[in-house]
C-alpha cells in the first residue's frame, strides 16, 4: 500500500497547477523511492517529468509499485479543498480503485477526506538519454517568466542563443522584433537573483513561446529555473524542489529554414 | 520557416 504524508499541501497543489494545462490524464508511479510522473502533451511536443522523492514526504511508505491513473482536472477539484498549509496524506491500496486524500489543518481539528476514482491509463514511457548539455543557464524563475511573456506579445517563437557574451532571448514578429540579453550575475545578498551561465560550446535554438509560458506556471515552486540546451535536442527546463525532488519540462525545438 | 519537431523524434519509447 501507499501512504505518503506531505507537510504542506501547497507543494502538490502547485505542481498539479503547473502541469494540468499541459497533460490531462497521467499515471503517478509510486514506489519506494517516491512518486514519479512522466507525460507528453497531446501534440507530442513537450514532456513533463516530475519526481517527488520519498524524502519529500514524512512518513513515506510504498511496499510495491503502484500506478495511480489520475485525471488532473479531478485532482485539481479535490486539491482546491485543501488549504495551502494543510498536511496532506495520500493513501492507496496495492491494486487500488481510488486514491484517498486527507487534508489536516495544523491549526484546527479539521480533517477532510476525499477519494478520487482512478483511471486505467496505458501510458508510454520515454527513455530520456543522459545529456551533457552545451549550455546550462540558472536564472531567477520570475525573470524567465517575464521574458517569455514579454516576447510572446510579439511572436510565437523565441530563439535562445547562448555564447560567452551571455544568453540572448530574441523574437521577430509582425509588429517588430525584440530581445533580452542576460549576462552572468552574482548577487551575494540575494542568491535567488543570480544568473549563472555554464557554457561548453555556443548554442542557438528556437522554441515555441506558448509552451515556455506554460512551463512558467511552475515559477512559484522555485526561485530559480535551470535551462539546459544543446544544438538540435529538446530544451530542459528544470524547477528544483527540496530533497532532490524536481519538476522538469522538455520541449522539442523548431528546426529547419 | 522553422518547423516544430516532435519530442518523439528525440526520446525513444521504452
Can you describe what's shown?
The complex is a heterodimer of chains A (257) and B (14). Chain A has 257 residues and is mainly β. Helices cover 15% and strands 44% of the residues of chain A. Chain A has helices at 9-19, 72-79, 141-152, 209-215, and strands at 2-6, 25-31, 34-40, 46-53, 60-62, 66-71, 87-92, 98-104, 111-117, 126-127, 135-140, 157-163, 166-172, 177-182, 196-199, 203-208, 224-229, 235-240, 246-251, 254-255. In chain A, strand 13 (166-172) and strand 14 (177-182) form a beta hairpin. In chain A, helix 1 (9-19) packs antiparallel against helix 2 (72-79) and helix 3 packs antiparallel against helix 4. The mean pLDDT of chain A is 96. Chain B is 0% helix and 29% strand. Chain B has no helices and 2 strands. The interface between A and B is medium-sized, with 25 and 14 residues. Strand 20 of chain A pairs antiparallel with strand 1 of chain B, so a sheet runs across the interface.
Low-confidence stretches of chain B: none
Total count of strands of chain A = 20
**SSE ordering of chain A:** EHEEEEEHEEEEEHEEEEEHEEEE
In terms of quaternary structure, the protein is heterodimer
Could you name the ranges of chain A where pLDDT drops below 50 across 5 or more consecutive residues?
none
- Average pLDDT of chain A, rounded to a whole number, is 96
Structural classification of chain A? mainly beta
- What percentage of residues of chain B falls in helices of 4 or more residues? under 10%
Structural class of chain B: mainly beta
Q: Assign a percent range to the helix content of chain A.
A: 10-25%
Note the gap between the termini of chain A: 53 Å
| pLDDT averaged residue by residue of chain B | 93
Major sheet strand order of chain A: 6-2-3-4-19-18-17-11-15
Q: Main sheet of chain B?
A: none
Query: How much strand of chain B?
Result: 25-35%
Shape of chain B: rod-shaped
| Largest beta-sheet characterization of chain A | 9 strands, antiparallel
Amino acid at each position: 500500500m501507499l501512504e505518503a504524508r506531505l507537510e504542506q499541501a501547497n507543494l502538490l497543489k502547485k505542481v498539479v497547477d503547473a502541469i494540468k494545462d499541459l497533460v490531462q490524464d497521467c499515471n503517478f508511479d509510486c514506489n519506494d523511492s517516491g512518486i514519479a510522473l512522466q507525460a507528453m502533451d497531446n501534440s507530442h511536443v513537450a514532456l513533463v517529468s516530475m519526481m517527488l522523492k520519498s524524502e519529500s514526504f514524512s512518513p513515506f511508505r510504498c511496499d510495491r509499485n503502484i500506478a495511480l491513473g489520475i485525471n488532473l482536472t479531478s485532482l485539481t477539484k479535490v486539491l482546491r479543498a485543501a488549504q495551502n498549509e494543510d498536511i496532506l496524506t495520500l493513501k492507496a491500496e496495492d491494486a487500488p480503485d481510488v486514491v484517498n486524500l486527507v487534508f489536516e489543518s495544523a491549526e484546527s481539528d479539521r480533517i477532510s477526506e476525499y477519494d478520487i476514482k482512478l483511471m486505467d491509463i496505458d501510458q508510454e514511457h520515454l527513455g530520456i538519454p543522459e545529456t551533457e548539455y552545451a549550455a546550462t543557464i540558472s536564472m531567477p524563475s520570475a525573470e524567465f517568466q517575464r521574458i517569455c511573456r514579454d516576447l510572446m506579445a510579439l511572436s510565437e517563437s523565441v530563439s535562445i542563443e547562448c555564447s560567452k557574451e551571455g544568453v540572448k532571448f530574441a523574437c521577430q514578429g509582425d509588429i517588430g522584433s525584440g530581445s533580452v540579453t542576460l549576462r552572468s550575475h552574482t548577487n551575494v545578498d540575494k542568491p535567488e537573483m543570480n544568473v549563472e551561465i555554464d557554457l561548453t560550446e555556443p548554442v542557438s535554438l528556437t522554441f515555441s513561446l506558448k509552451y515556455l509560458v506554460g512551463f512558467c506556471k511552475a515559477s512559484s515552486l522555485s526561485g530559480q529555473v535551470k535551462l539546459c540546451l544543446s544544438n538540435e535536442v529538446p530544451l530542459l527546463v528544470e524547477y528544483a524542489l527540496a530533497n532532490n525532488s524536481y519538476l522538469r519540462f522538455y520541449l522539442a525545438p523548431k528546426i529547419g529554414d | 520557416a522553422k518547423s516544430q519537431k516532435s519530442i518523439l523524434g528525440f526520446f525513444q519509447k521504452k
